[in-house]
């Protein structure tokens, strides 16, 4: 039975109810984990960077396409600008991906096995701890499964509505990160590999989807053509001429991907041993040729293409690139191994997942305090405190809302989120990186510069404002939470008062 003729296996109300319970549990658990474990830490740079871009709603940025920043803009138009709301967005984003995987799994599985294909994703850090930093990689946790789902639907139905939805989803993925070209290539491969490909390509569906995709991409493409620096240049900066280094990076990437599947592998081995005496009737049905090929391409294609592209174009890859590429790993394993999963096995998996989640929550506050004490992953950086202190000083010295900030990256970006005035980041003191900043905006708003005292690049850039009407001070700030004090950080803060013409060109570009 082909994709074009097949329908998802029968769904029951209990299946849907169980899925909703799983999604709610995922969102609650991982949002709570963030609040407990990351309480000593301020938001990571990727998140505050997305927020700073979201304020401007650009058609593109020097580093990434703009879609996930647009998502942040929409989210914070509904929610308060606080940490928990950002963590909630991260958890909801992952949950949307889980729901899309469940919908895809309905083509191959039913009942407990179908839900297990989603539940087992909790064993992969890509869908859990690595999803909590909302950025250009983690947003693909929802977008790639949606692209796969909508491709399969468009292939089945070949109607205009399905084609339009596929085109929009593909554009959203590509407008979040160009790396999404990998999943689009897999869609094309799945279509070409399918026995009913002639029927699909003879319909209007693929061409309507392509037209919608092109129309949605056009504003960004035109922006890129006129931008001083865009994502293509940023991508080029990540390539390397040293073949041995590229091979080493690719090897580490492959080894890391294998390692993070250890827990999932153990769960699948247990399911295999438990159901090895099951009858053929209790096992998943053998998929059609088209469905089988599509699953193989979507489950393995992104990983293989990522490694191949890295080697061919000498791109340095890290395990964060793998965040969206393994969403169908449990589904593929269940289908290929024809694992018999009954409701008792599903309940056992759910209990183990729940116990593991509760253990994580109980340990989270102590682990968070440890990260603050030892400054693990920059947990001791006082970004919120500095933003609040600088804002209060600006209002006291200048008497206007803080409009534009620049300086050491973590603190300039942190100020955009944590300052009550939510200023704009003048990235790297250069309009090429922040094209929404021009001479008139700096003249009207002035500029607050926040430099770590040992950041020679920042202090060197700030020196070009000497001779203007400025105010300078030094700060020493340390976090304190639940009786634990982080190490102190020293800062030089310079205010350039409004009403003056500021130089726009950097003395020396910051390396990215």
Element layout with pairings:
Blueprint: H1 13-37, H2 45-56, H3 67-76, H4 83-105, H5 111-119, H6 140-157, H7 160-174, H8 181-193, H9 197-201, H10 205-226, H11 231-237, H12 243-259, H13 262-274, H14 289-313, H15 329-337, H16 343-374, H17 383-397, E1 404-407, H18 409-418, E2 424-425, H19 439-445, E3 447-452, H20 456-462, E4 470-477, E5 480-481, E6 484-485, E7 489-496
Parallel strand pairs: 1-2, 1-3
Antiparallel strand pairs: 3-7, 4-7, 5-6
Helix pairs in contact: 1-4, 1-5, 1-16, 2-3, 2-18, 4-5, 4-6, 5-15, 5-16, 6-7, 6-8, 7-10, 8-14, 17-18
In short:
This protein is 57% helix and 6% strand. The protein has 512 residues and is of the alpha/beta class.
Mean pLDDT: 93
Radius of gyration: 25 Å
The number of distinct β-strands equals 7
Q: In what order do the strands lie side by side in the largest sheet? A: 2-1-3-7-4
The largest sheet is: 5 strands, mixed
Which stretches are poorly predicted, pLDDT < 50 over at least 5 residues?
A: 1-11
Continuous helix count: 20
| N- and C-termini, Cα separation | 51 Å
Q: Bin the helical content.
A: 55-70%
- What shape does the CA trace take? globular
Structural class: alpha/beta
Strand proportion? 5-15%
Helix and strand element order: HHHHHHHHHHHHHHHHHEHEHEHEEEE
């Amino acid at each position: 039975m082909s994709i074009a003729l097949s329908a998802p296996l029968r769904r029951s109300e209990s299946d849907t109810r169980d899925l909703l319970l799983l999604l709610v549990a995922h969102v609650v658990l991982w949002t709570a984990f963030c609040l407990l474990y990351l309480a000593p830490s301020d938001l990571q740079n990727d998140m505050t960077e997305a927020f700073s871009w979201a304020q401007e709603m650009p058609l593109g940025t020097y580093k990434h396409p703009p879609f996930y920043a647009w998502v942040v803009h929409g989210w914070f138009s509904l929610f308060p600008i606080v940490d928990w709301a950002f963590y909630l967005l991260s958890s909801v984003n992952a949950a949307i991906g889980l729901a899309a995987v469940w919908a895809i799994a309905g083509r191959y599985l039913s009942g407990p096995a179908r839900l297990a294909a989603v539940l087992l994703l909790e064993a992969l850090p890509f869908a859990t701890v690595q999803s909590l930093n909302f950025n250009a990689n983690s947003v693909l946790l929802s977008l790639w499964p949606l692209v796969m789902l909508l491709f399969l639907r468009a292939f089945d139905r070949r109607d205009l509505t399905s084609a339009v939805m596929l085109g929009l989803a593909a554009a959203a993925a590509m407008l979040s990160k160009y790396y999404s070209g990998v999943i689009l290539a897999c869609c094309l491969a799945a279509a070409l590999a399918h026995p009913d490909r002639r029927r699909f390509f003879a319909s209007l569906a693929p061409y309507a989807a392509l037209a919608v995709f092109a129309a949605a991409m056009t504003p960004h493409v035109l922006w890129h053509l006129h931008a001083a620096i865009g994502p293509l240049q940023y991508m080029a900066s990540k390539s390397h001429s040293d073949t041995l280094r590229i091979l080493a990076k690719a090897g580490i990437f492959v080894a890391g991907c294998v390692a993070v599947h250890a827990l999932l592998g153990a769960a699948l081995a247990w399911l295999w041993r438990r159901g090895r005496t099951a009858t053929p009737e209790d096992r998943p049905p053998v998929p059609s040729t088209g469905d089988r090929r599509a699953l193989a391409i979507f489950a393995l294609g992104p990983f293989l293409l990522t490694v191949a592209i890295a080697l061919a174009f000498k791109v340095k890859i890290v395990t964060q690139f793998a965040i969206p590429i393994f969403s169908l790993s449990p589904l593929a394993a269940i289908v290929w191994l024809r694992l018999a999963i009954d409701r008792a096995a599903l309940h056992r998996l759910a209990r183990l997942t729940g116990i593991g989640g509760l253990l994580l929550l109980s340990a989270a506050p102590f682990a968070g305090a440890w990260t603050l004490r030892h400054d693990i992953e920059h947990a001791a950086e006082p970004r919120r405190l500095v933003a609040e202190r600088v804002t209060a000083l600006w209002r006291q010295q200048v008497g206007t809302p803080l409009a534009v900030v620049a300086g050491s990256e973590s603190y300039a970006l942190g100020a955009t989120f944590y300052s009550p005035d939510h200023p704009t980041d003048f990235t790297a003191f250069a309009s090429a990186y922040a094209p929404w900043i021009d001479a008139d905006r700096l003249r009207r708003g002035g500029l607050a510069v926040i430099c770590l005292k040992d950041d020679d690049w920042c202090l060197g850039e700030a020196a070009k404002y000497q001779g203007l009407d400025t105010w300078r001070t030094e700060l020493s700030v340390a976090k304190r939470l639940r009786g634990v004090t982080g190490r102190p950080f020293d800062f030089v803060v310079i205010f350039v008062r409004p009403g003056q013409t500021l130089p726009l060109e950097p003395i020396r570009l910051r390396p990215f």
